[in-house]
Design brief:
Distance between the termini of chain A: 35 Å
Helix content of chain B: over 70%
Shape of chain A: globular
Oligomer: heterodimer
Order of helices and strands of chain A: HHEEHHHHHHHHHHHHHHHHH
Radius of gyration of chain A: 21 Å
Structural class of chain B: mainly alpha
Largest interface: A-B, 24 and 30 residues
Helix content of chain A: over 70%
Radius of gyration of chain B: 21 Å
CATH class of chain B: Mainly Alpha
CATH topology of chain B: Helix Hairpins
Number of helices of chain B: 5
Distance between the termini of chain B: 65 Å
Order of helices and strands of chain B: HHHHH
Number of domains of chain B: 1
Chain lengths: ~500, ~120
């Protein structure tokens, strides 16, 4: 009986944990509630994923109203995959926050962090699981509003400005999305995603549908920080508390990528996206520019958080590059990179948070000599950095491998060369850390010398281990991504 | 006349563009939020206006009424209004905090303050 309601509980439990954390107020209780709620969602997500791979998509009717009238929660190969990523990272960052947030926030504000963390997790999970276009907007705003506050919690006053800029751009993005959905509703009279896909070909005005496609593309691209709409991202990541940066970098942009995939392939269909407007060409060019410029900008950053933030913009370029191929291998690469990059960036930002805690800032000069003073933290960053570059044996390699396969399949050899060449820029910016940590003498005195505390190191190293694990044992990630790609392409009319 | 017949769309478009322009063109953080609010409000109109049928009534089944207006856009926009109010409230709260931290709410003054401090340090 309760098993049938798992899709609803996946979202409702973290959503209810948020007010509970506020009511309890004690920081340790709030932490326990948040961690338990996220862990519950993670367990449910794993259960749903295994259920989906065994028996096919799950459709849950909220309040027993059948779709297209009621809101439908839909778990399929793709959404199950993203649910596991979001809830897993949510759990690990909640564990990590125990020590990290205690050091960064005043004692009487800590419970608010956990409430917002739960809200953000609930919003992102809701965006992923819902099968209703307007419901997605509501969850998008739940996730966004909580992430604006999470960023504004940063100690530096520039965090406030970063949060404000993100609020403006994020709201413009969400409003563009809602305009697009409105146009779709006017054309078809439905908001259910499957129903939309079925009715769009008969829409009275193809022009309105194309306008909707354009609005939704721009709106979601703002959220996923597609170049040149990424301007909010580096400051937001650099000044937010460490746990927040890790959580948002690993999940928020990824869920937006998922929304883009859903709309392109699940609703509009490849035919409309590829033939009526030059969407694939636009996406291809923007991805290439994103990869090159953001990687180059990352090279010149003096702060580790900013460095990896720009690298995130570049890595999102690889994901959208896979989407622009719109082939089986291309989409597999996009989905698997969505997951692998989430894990890799999560690990990196969690470890950088350890440096920020001990050294007081995440500046590159603080990393000098860390190979000796914080051996486990530095080693973790190097391993996750290798995954970022795409060295064989790490998760990053798997996604680049499928990207290259997709490029070969499309007969674009220059793209193969491009992917390999731009990986070299990643080598350069990861090397800057290696040089500082292992080849430089320790810098000035650090306020709190010593290794990262164990409660922060363990969640980070779980993700580092996942970087290597998913690089060697690829059946779960690649299998899931291939099923998702087949679903997306098969779902296209 | 179809241009005038679609006047609600014209108003929507004008509000939308005006709101977005204010967000981009103004440096004052409060004015930006006002622009954002106008931009969001235009979307409410985009949803609500087409839901009304001329001569239509509320969708309650009764004798003599055959033409019903669509209630769903109202429900959707009620949600969107809540979201819009929450966004505006949060935005204003952040501006208050920015004013406390920087003593300014003009974008260029804030950026200059951070640049000066960066150069001084």
């Amino acid at each position: 009986m309760t098993l049938a309601h798992l899709p609803a509980l996946e979202v409702v439990v973290p959503l209810l944990a948020a007010p509970l954390a506020v009511l309890l107020r004690r920081s340790s209780l709030a932490w326990a509630i948040a961690t338990a709620a996220c862990a519950f969602s993670f367990a449910v997500a794993l259960l749903l994923a295994s259920e989906v791979s065994a028996h096919g998509p799950i459709s849950y009717h909220l309040g027993s109203w059948p779709p297209p009238w009621g809101i439908e929660y839909r778990v399929d190969a793709l959404s199950a995959f993203v649910l596991v990523l979001v809830s897993g990272i949510g759990t690990l960052t909640a564990l990590y926050a125990w020590r990290s947030i205690a050091a960064e926030l005043p004692r009487d504000q800590i419970y608010l962090y956990y409430a917002l963390h739960c809200l953000c997790v609930a919003g992102l999970l809701g965006m992923t699981i819902t099968g209703d276009a307007f419901n997605l907007f509501v969850f998008m705003e739940i996730a966004s509003l909580s992430s604006y506050v999470l960023i504004a919690l940063g100690r530096d006053r520039r965090a406030l400005v970063a949060a404000y800029q993100y609020l403006i751009l994020g709201t413009i993005g969400a409003t563009f999305y809602v305009i697009g959905v409105g146009l779709l509703y006017l054309s078809t009279g439905t908001l259910n995603m499957d129903d939309l896909a079925a009715r769009l070909p008969q829409a009275a005005s193809p022009r309105a549908v194309l306008a909707a496609l354009a609005f939704i593309t721009v709106g979601v691209s703002l959220k996923l920080a597609l170049f040149p709409l990424h301007l909010w991202l580096p400051n937001a990541y650099a000044y937010a508390p460490s746990a927040v940066t890790a959580f948002l970098a690993a999940t928020a942009t990824k869920v937006s990528v998922y929304v883009l995939l859903r709309f392109y392939f699940g609703i509009f269909g490849l035919e409309l996206v590829a033939e009526s407007l030059p969407m694939r060409e636009i996406l291809l060019v923007l991805s290439l520019v994103a990869i090159v410029t953001a990687s180059l900008v990352a090279l010149w950053q003096a702060d580790l958080k900013r460095l990896f933030a720009y690298s995130s913009v570049a890595q999102i370029g690889y994901i959208t590059l896979g989407i622009s191929m719109a082939s089986r291998d291309g989409l597999t690469a996009a989905v698997v990179h969505l997951f692998n990059h989430g894990v890799t960036k999560g690990a990196l930002f969690l470890l950088v948070g350890g440096i920020a805690l001990r050294a007081g800032s995440a500046g590159l000069e603080c990393a000098r000599g860390l190979g000796r003073t914080m051996p486990l933290t530095s080693l973790g960053i190097v391993i996750a950095g290798l995954s970022l570059i795409g060295v064989p044996g790490t998760a990053g390699f798997v996604s680049k491998w499928y990207l290259v396969l997709g490029a070969i399949e499309a007969g674009r050899w220059w793209l193969v060369a491009f992917v390999v060449a731009t990986s070299l820029i990643a080598v350069a910016y990861v090397w800057r850390f290696v040089e500082a940590a292992y080849l430089s003498a320790p810098g000035g005195r650090t306020p709190e010398p010593g290794e990262t505390p164990a409660t922060m190191l363990v969640p980070a190293w779980i993700l580092v281990a996942a970087c290597v694990g998913f690089g060697l044992q690829t059946s779960w990630t690649v299998g899931g991504a291939q099923r998702a790609a087949a679903l997306l392409l098969g779902g296209a009319p | 006349m179809s241009v005038l017949g679609h006047y609600s769309y014209w108003i929507t478009v004008i509000l939308m563009v005006a709101g977005l322009y204010i967000v981009i063109a103004r440096g004052n953080l409060i004015k930006k939020l006002i622009g954002l609010s106008i931009f969001q409000t235009s979307v409410y109109l985009l949803y609500i206006a087409p839901g009304k049928l001329i001569g239509g009534t509320a969708p309650i089944v009764a004798d003599g009424f055959k033409l019903y207006s669509n209630p769903l856009p109202h429900v959707l926009i009620l949600t969107a209004i809540v979201v819009g109010v929450a966004t505006l409230a949060l935005g204003l709260a952040i501006v208050v905090r920015i004013r406390e931290a920087y003593g300014a709410i003009e974008e260029d003054e804030i950026l200059a303050a951070d640049r000066d401090r960066g150069a001084g340090a």
